[in-house]
C-alpha cells in the first residue's frame, strides 16, 4: 500500500516489499514480450504467419527519389587511386591536382567519370576550356557529398 508524505504532490513512498513486488511484476512483463526466448517463439510464429509479406520488387529503385533506375542513367566513376605504403587500399585523389580527397567537397564529371576537388573545379574547369578538352556546363557534373556519420543536423 502506497503512503504519501505530508506533501500530497510528492511521489508515493513504498516499503521495501512493495517496491520489490512491483519490480518483479515489471520483469515478468518484460520477459513475456521478449520474442527471442524459447517460451515465446510460438507466439511470434503465429504473428508472422498472419502478416502477409510482399515479395521484393524486381526493379532497382533509387533510395532518394524512389523512382526505378535505368542502366543508361548510371554513370561510370573512374577515380584515380594512389596506394600508400601503410595501407593496402589507396586513397582517391583529385584527377586535376593529385591531392587526396578525404573530407573535401568534390565534383564528378559526367562525361569522363573523373573526380575533382570542388575548389579546383570552380577555379580552373567550370565554364572554361581545360586540359580535358571539354567545356563543362550546368548539367555536366554532379556535386559529391563528403563522408559523414549519417546523422542529419
Automatic annotation (TrEMBL):
Molecular function terms from GO: ubiquitin protein ligase activity
Superkingdom of the source species: Eukaryota
CC per GO annotation: nucleus
Protein name from the UniProt record: Nitric oxide synthase-interacting protein zinc-finger domain-containing protein
Amino acid at each position: 500500500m502506497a503512503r504519501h508524505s505530508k506533501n500530497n504532490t510528492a511521489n508515493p513512498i513504498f516499503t521495501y516489499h512493495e517496491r520489490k513486488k512491483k519490480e518483479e511484476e515489471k520483469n515478468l512483463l518484460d520477459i513475456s514480450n521478449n520474442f527471442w526466448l524459447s517460451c515465446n517463439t510460438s507466439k511470434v510464429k503465429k504473428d508472422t504467419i498472419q502478416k502477409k509479406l510482399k515479395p521484393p520488387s524486381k526493379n532497382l529503385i533509387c533510395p532518394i527519389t524512389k523512382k526505378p533506375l535505368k542502366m543508361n542513367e548510371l554513370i561510370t566513376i573512374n577515380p584515380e587511386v594512389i596506394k600508400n605504403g601503410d595501407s593496402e587500399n589507396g586513397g582517391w585523389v583529385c584527377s586535376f591536382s593529385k591531392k587526396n580527397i578525404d573530407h573535401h567537397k568534390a565534383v564528378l564529371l559526367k562525361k569522363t567519370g573523373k573526380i575533382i576537388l570542388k575548389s579546383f573545379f570552380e577555379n580552373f574547369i567550370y565554364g572554361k576550356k581545360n586540359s580535358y578538352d571539354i567545356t563543362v556546363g550546368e548539367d555536366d557534373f554532379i556535386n559529391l557529398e563528403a563522408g559523414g556519420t549519417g546523422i542529419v543536423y
